[in-house]
Amino acid sequence: MTDLSKYKFHHSMIRVKDPHTSIKFYEYLGMKLINKLSNPDANFDLYFLAYDGPGAPSNGNHWTDREGVIELTHNYGSENDPDFKLANGNSDPGRGFGHLCVSVDNIQAACRRLEDAGYKFQKKLTEGRMRSIALILDPDGYWVEIISMKPVDQTESITTTDLNSYRMNHTMIRVKDAGESVKFYEDNFGMKLISTSANPDAKFNLYFLGYGASPEESVPNGTNPRATQEGLLELTWNYGTEKDPNFKYHDGNSDPQGFGHICVSVDDLESACERLEKNGVAFAKKLKEGRMHNIAFALDPNGYRIEVIQNEKLKARANCDVGGGSVPGQPQQLQIDLEYILLLNVHAENQGIHPYSLA
Question: How many CA atoms does the CB half-sphere of 132 hold within 13 Å?
């Protein structure tokens, strides 16, 4: 039996050209490298970054027991190819994924700091009609939205920003049919529709889903009511796409590549996947398919991949509750690490490359 209240929107995966420049960028945004999974035999590495300061919601947690994580996937050699480029998801033919979003304390100071460091913007805070958001570009051209936790008119004169207060707030993907997509994430992954932003004049709506408590309904003007949260999913629906039988968004996993997947960690991986199958959810890889049985990739109605992994903290607790389950003489953390070496094999199989050898 799986408990949907234990689920977490764990991470969003994007491919990167040069991990060193990408990690430097996200660390400048205050994130920390919380885990690295190396797979030299298959020529790729995975880097997991998150906010982990004293005030972070997941401070000190096991890396699978978190929300608001970014996974950077690096295929060896891409950094040495001057012609290599990834699709950021915001132009055809790769349009689908939209952006990551970081919420900050004092948005003017935060944006000045980024601009002074030489990072480029898709939209500066002072540009356009929306003066409460900015869009910065990461080294691969992915958009990172910057939003404020405080009313913007109250932070104009503040010159400092506290990186420890930042949150990896949400990931945005575009969807063809809003009703279908919202229902899919509610019914199959237990997410809640936290808020909706309707924009009829511009002919699009935004739907924010996630786990945990809903934000306050009444907040000061110029403040995003969801800004203090972490690990939200934003679905963007452009009116009329649901009526076009030939309309389709790009999932990021065929050319041109860029965005890879989102990921949900669960309390009981096998039970969770059994439930998804009973619900008729399509899979790119079922749990029992292939050689690796510790990971699955479900498909949402738009073809986006949803990685499903075990929350190892909950698994360890369950093993203790039933009186065992560990290998005699083997430390629990070592068991967890070995399981995630196996996870690498599944990532390799999912990319069509040779899996990692445990020999």
Answer: 14
